[in-house]
Design goal:
This protein has 135 residues and is mostly beta strands. The protein contains 1 helix and 12 strands; from the N terminus they run E-E-E-E-E-E-E-E-E-E-E-E-H. It is globular. The structure holds thymidine-5'-diphosphate.
């Protein structure tokens, strides 16, 4: 996949004086069936997460609280997406290198994935990633 396949997806936002509500449905708001959801929190200032690509899994990342940056790289170019609202998220298909940094205090990153956890799906070596991309 390439950088142009990565996209911000807006989710429904039901505004109410009692507070707002957003939601996402598998295969509806996001283009895959969710098999797993995990979240990243309590990231100390200055630390980064990610730093790998996935062979198979697609992901959708939302800043449920606070903000952080997601840097996506297809081997040729990189793009930074700042996530700071709970009513949109970033869709990242497979075979793209990603890093998350610039976490604000108390930020909460929720990630929905198209696969169950499998360590074999990770590409953690950047040179191996470039080989995979034929670069
Ligand atoms: P990792 O995906 O490397 O974290 P990040 O990309 O956010 O920096 O995962 C960190 C550790 O957690 C690693 O040992 C694998 C484990 N893990 C699971 O057991 N299940 C999961 O669903 C995820 C995402 C990670």
């Amino acid at each position: 996949m390439l950088l142009e396949d990565v996209k911000i997806i807006n989710l429904p936002k039901i505004e109410d004086q009692r507070g707002n509500l957003s939601f996402l449905e598998s295969n509806n708001h996001i283009p895959f069936k969710i098999k797993r959801t995990y979240w990243i929190y309590d990231v100390p200032g200055g630390f980064a997460r990610g730093g790998h690509a996935f062979l198979e899994q697609h992901e959708f990342i939302i800043a449920l609280s606070g903000s952080f940056d997601v840097i996506v790289d297809d081997g040729k170019e990189k793009k930074t997406f700042t996530l700071n609202r709970s009513y949109y998220g970033l869709y990242i298909p497979s075979t793209l290198w990603r890093e998350m940094n610039n976490f604000s205090t108390n930020s909460l990153a929720m990630v929905s994935s198209s696969t169950l956890f499998s360590d074999d799906d990770y590409v953690r070596d950047y040179d191996q990633f470039l080989k995979l991309k034929g670069i």
